Amino acid sequence: PRSAGDTSVLAGLYGPAEVKGSRELPDRAALEVLLRPKVGLPGVAERSREQLLRRSCEAVVLGALHPRTAITVVLQVLSDGGSLLSCCLNAACLALLDAGLPLATLFCGVTCALGAAGAIVLDPTRRQEQEARAVLTFGIAGAEKKVLMATTKGSCSVEEMQQCLAAAQRAADAIFQFYRDSVWRRYSKS
Known about the structure:
Strand order of the largest sheet: 1-2-4-3
Shape: globular
Distance between the termini: 20 Å
C-alpha cells in the first residue's frame, strides 16, 4: 500500500497477460487502470480519475515492448484523508516499478491546495482541500519534471497555477528519492 498522510491506496498489477478481441493492440500493450472506492461501486469521480491515471501511466510505460498484451493496474482506496489522486499516481508508479515493467521514466503525483490568501499547502488533508480556494494535482515525470497531467478544482490565476506547479516540481524530488529508497530496501533484503 502507498500512503500519504491519512490517505492509503493498495495497488495491484496484472500482466502483461494475453489479451483477445477488441482490446488487443498490435503495436503495444493495452493498459487499463481500475480505481475502487473504499465502499460501494465506482462512480463518475472514479471513472474520471481512472482516465487521468491511465493517460499518465501510458505516457511512461514502454508498452511497445509487450505488444498484444494487457496490463491492468487496480487501485483500491483504503482511506481517503485528502490528496487522493496524487496518492493513486504514486501507488501506480510503485506497482509498475515493483512488477519490473519497463518505464521510460519515473512519475509521481503532487497535490497543492491554494488558501484564500494565496498560501500553498502541499499534500493537503481533506479538510484543507475543502477550505481551499483551489486544489491542483500534477502528474510529474522524470528528472526534467515534465507535466504528464494537471487537474484543477476551484479558481486560481495563471500565476498562482505556475507557483503551484513549481512547488509540485520541487516536491517531486523527494518522492522520487522515496521510490529509490523503497526499491533499494526491498531488493537489498533478498
